[in-house]
Structures are given as C-alpha cells and as structure tokens.
Write a structure and sequence with these properties.
heterodimer; A: about 110 residues; 5 helices; about 0% strand
Chain lengths: ~110, ~240
C-alpha cells in the first residue's frame, strides 16, 4: 500500500471520528467504561512507542549503558519534567543532553 | 446578523487561540522535520497535516512509518489515538446541533484538543452566543493555518539540514512524548498503565507489523482500568479518568 493511501486512510478515519457526533447528534453515546479507558490512551500509546526506542536504539539488543545517549537523555528528561512540569523546558534540556552526550561519548 | 459581527466573532476566536498557536508551533516544526526520517516525500508530510490535522496521531504515524509498520497498525493507532475527539464533539454538541450540515462537518474537521479547550471555556461563559459558530471557526481555522505553516517550516528545516536525521532526530519525538506523558502520571493507575505498556512494548517489539505495540497499549489500558476499579468501588464510581 502506498504512503499516500495510508495518509488518506488516516484522514478519512480522523474526519469520521471528529465529525460523526456533530452530524449524527444524540444517536451516538458512550459507556462509562469507554470514557475511562480513553483516559489511559495517551500515556500507554506514547510510552509504548518510546520505550523500545530508548532501550534498544539500534533495533535489536538491550543497551542498558551510560554510553547510550537515548537512555541517558530520556532519564534526564523524565527527571526535568517531573520536577518542573514545563513542557518546552523538558524538550530543550533533553535535546541538549542528547546531542551533547552523543558528541562526547557516541 | 450582520457580516461585521460574524467577522468580529471569527477574529475573537482566533485571538483567544493565540496561546495555543504558540504552544503548537514547536510540535508542527518537529513533525515536519521528522518526516525526513521516514520513506515519506516532503509533500506527503504536508498532505498529512492538511488532511489528517491531528498532531499526536501524525507523530505516531511518523514513528510507525519509520519502523516500517503495517498500514492496518497505523490506521488502528490513528483510530484509538483520535477517538477522544468524539468525546469533545459530544461535549460541544448542544452548541452546534442547530447549525446547517455543512457547518457541522466543517467544525468537526477543525476540532482539536486546543480548539476544544477554547470552545469549552467560551460556551461556559456564553452559553447562548448566536455567533458562537463563527468564534469556533476562528479558533479552528487559526489552528489549521498555524499547523500548516509550522509543518512547512519543519519540512524545509529537515531538507536544509539532512544530517540532523543521522544524528538521531527521532530523539526529538522521544523527548516530546516524555514531556506529554510525565505530567499525566500523577495517579497510580496511570503510572502503572504506562509502565505496563512500556515494558510490554519492549518485550514484544519483534512481533511483525508492530503488533506488539497494539498488544502493549491494550494491556496498559486494561491494567489502568483494573486498578481504577480496585481503588474505587462500583458504588462510588464518580471520578472518571
């Protein structure tokens, strides 16, 4: 399947989700369980994507080492974010440590 | 209703969305720059911003494409990540129900986390505003134009500095996601859901088509739900996550 078709499919799915309730009105309802489950979607999806990227940046082996710049910078970013709760500061600090670590130890 | 007051309402919606525009800018730029880490051509990156217009699902699709995930996995991830918009739409429905169909389709397309936040507070203050849909359009359209501009800046940035990608630009996505997730981990069910999803995603990472990612999400959500149920007995189930 071509990338363009993948993108168009994403667009159709997203448009359908966003507009359905506005167009159909009250005929769409949600159970409390669905609402509750949705509350866990952001944290699980995002964490599931990044953990393998950080622990095995080259795809295969576990790289639990201080020489792994992804791991060091990710742990540092988690700490900065937990303490400051500042999104942009976390991103800047994390990127600075990542590129610095990669430059000196990579 | 005069045209000038419709325009004034549109402009007020755009103006009240300015802080959200500033907040979305770096994400649009990082998204544009990350397109170069995948098999997508720059125009396809812009097409995604133009047609999908949902930042978190766009980031996830880019990450999945870079990992050569199957198309069904990308579509499923798009579905579950964007599903929250249905809840936003349900909350705003009483204020748009009376509008003609073309308005409801258009405002639905323009719905984002940011515009929902702006509209929710607007309708709380002005529950019977006759030109609320123009305000909604102003907020949604300004987010849309802003997202297109910053995607383009990121695409150009990625094209001018292609060596950024070999330096590990995908770490920009990792740290962006960390900055979104960590502030949400204040309660035990959310923390446990994230830990479970992260561990399972690592353990199952070699399954084909990134199916391990889907399994990890399902397990994480299930653990979060389970812990919520254990902590709040059914009779007092009020505080929804």
């Amino acid at each position: 399947m071509s990338a363009t078709a993948t993108i168009i499919g994403m667009a159709v799915i997203t448009f359908f989700i966003k507009a359905l309730v506005f167009v159909l009105g009250d005929r769409v309802g949600f159970s409390p369980t669905v609402k509750q489950a949705l509350g866990f979607v952001p944290v699980t999806v995002l964490t599931a994507i990044i953990v393998p990227m950080v622990l095995a940046p080259h795809g295969q082996e576990l790289e639990l080492s201080w020489r792994n710049p992804q791991l060091v910078a990710a742990l540092f970013s988690v700490a900065v974010c937990a303490v400051t709760r500042h999104q942009l500061l976390t991103i800047m600090a994390g990127l600075a440590v990542f590129f610095g670590w990669q430059f000196f130890y990579g | 209703m005069s045209q000038s007051s419709a325009l004034a309402s549109f402009m007020a919606g755009a103006r009240d969305t300015v802080p959200m525009l500033v907040g979305a800018a770096p994400f649009g730029m990082i998204f544009g720059a990350l397109v170069g880490t995948t098999q997508l051509a720059p125009w396809q990156g812009q097409l995604m911003s133009l047609s999908v217009f949902a930042g978190s699902s766009q980031f996830i699709a880019i990450g999945l494409m870079a990992g050569l995930a199957g198309v069904m996995v990308i579509w499923f991830a798009t579905f579950i990540v964007n599903f929250r918009h249905m809840l936003y739409a349900a909350a705003l429905l009483p204020h748009v129900r009376h509008l003609p169909g073309r308005w409801r389709w258009l405002l639905g397309f323009l719905l984002t986390d940011e515009t929902f936040a702006v509209m929710d507070s607007y309708y709380r203050k002005h529950p019977h505003a006759p030109l609320g849909h123009w305000y909604f359009l102003g907020s949604g359209f300004s987010m849309y134009a802003n997202w297109q501009c910053w995607t383009l800046v990121g695409l150009l940035f990625g094209a001018v500095f292609p060596q950024l990608q070999t330096l590990g630009l995908d770490f920009a996505m990792v740290v962006t996601f960390i900055s979104i997730v960590v502030p949400k981990l204040v309660r035990l069910p959310h923390f446990s859901a994230a830990v479970a999803a992260g561990s399972m995603a690592y353990l199952l990472k070699d399954l084909p088509f990134k199916l391990g990612l889907l399994a990890a999400i399902v397990i994480g959500v299930a653990i979060g739900l389970l812990l919520t149920r254990l902590r709040t007995p059914a009779s007092t189930e009020r505080g929804m996550a």
